[in-house]
Amino acid sequence: MIKNENVLGLVKKFNENKMSHVFLMETNDKTALLSDILELCKVMNCMETFQNDCNHCNLCHLIDTETLPSLKIIVPDGQVIKKEQMEELKNAFAYKPYIAKFNIYIIEDAEKFNRESANTMLKFIEEPEQDLYGFLITNNKENVIETIKSRCEIVKAIYSIQEKPISEKIVALANQYLYQLEVEKGLSIVYNKGILDENLEKEELIQFFKVLLDIYSNDFNKNYANKGFPKLTERELLKRIGLTNEMIERLNYNVNINLVLDSFVLGLEEEV
Questions:
Q1: Separation in Å, CA 112 to CA 17, 83, 142, 248
Q2: What is the tens place of the pLDDT at every residue in 140-154?
Q3: Which helix (H) or strand (E) holds 247?
Q4: Cβ–Cβ under 8 Å, residues 194 and 258
Q5: If you count Cβ atoms within 10 Å of the first and of the last residue's Cβ in the chain, which end, N or C, has fewer?
Q6: Residue 192: its pLDDT value, please?
Q7: How many contiguous H segments (helices) and E segments (strands) does the chain have?
Q8: Distances (CA, A) of 198 to 33, 36, 166, 208, 259
Q9: CATH number, span 5-157
Q10: Quick check: 14 and 43 in contact, CB under 8 A?
Q11: Exposed, middle or buried, 173 (CB in 10 Å: 0-12/13-18/19+)?
Q12: Looking at residue 230, what DSSP letter applies?
């Protein structure tokens, strides 16, 4: 069942024959969006009137297991989407779809096109076949190469994310890290190794920074100066609050965890 109302709106467009051939889908939850797009693929390819769990044919199973020949999902090869991947996609869809009605491709992390792959992709999307549809997923449309973005219909798909309660472990770890930074003055990326050794998941690391944000935002000097912490000026506090907010935002966009921690420390090392 499609959960996002804007993706659900594409069902209406499809039924009214007003569907664009290429969409750039901006989201805060790529996993949830991919699931919704696969559900949309079922609707588009259904030979009858689509119903959830109808079990009339094997089409939905092929889509769920990503084994439908006319459905291709592309993920970056390392840090980029490569030209060769786009050429393979073009070759795969050189023929009319079989089993299903349409050839459909989904490209994850569309911000990772490089110039060569983007140029190959342009040749693919500028004159789309009637039976071909594409969905490009990104967490920030502004990071997608302009020549690609300008040829897509942009759809924003935001999902509500229920956060788990912050554990005592995360709170203790954040306070320990804070002590290293502010009291022991361990402003070195070496100190981040201790955090990484905890094997924190991304969600836990976001919670870790949210604990730091709460500490800095809620009268830090009053609550921590009597614990041996130095008093911070207003500018120093604002800088820490800004940096911590930035780290939370970057983690939500799935950047490298090591780089986030290192840039946080390096940001604090700069003169206020």
A1: 31, 11, 12, 21
A2: 999 999 999 999 999
A3: helix 234-252
A4: no
A5: N
A6: 61
A7: 12, 5
A8: 30, 33, 15, 12, 16
A9: 3.40.50.300
A10: yes
A11: buried
A12: P
In single-letter form, the type of residue at position 222 comes to K
HSE value, Cβ hemisphere, 13 Å, CA-based, for 97: 19
pTM, entire model:
0.63
Residues 89 and 74: beta-carbon distance below 8 Å: yes
| 200 Cβ contact list (under 8 Å, min separation 6) | 208, 257
pLDDT, tens digit, for every residue of 162-181?
A: 667 888 989 998 888 888 88
Instruction: Tell me if 21 sits within 8 A of 105, measured CB to CB.
Output: no
Q: How far apart are CA 36 and CA 147, in angstroms?
A: 26
Total length of the chain: 272
pLDDT tens-digit profile of 120-145? Answer: 999 888 877 889 999 999 989 999 99
Task: Judge whether 71 and 63 are in contact, CB under 8 Å.
Answer: yes
Q: 23 phi and psi, to 5 degrees?
A: -120, 140
Average pLDDT over the chain, rounded to an integer: 86
What tens digit of pLDDT does each residue of 97-124 get?
Answer: 888 999 999 999 999 999 999 999 998 8
Other C-beta atoms lying within 10 Å of the C-beta of residue 119: 15
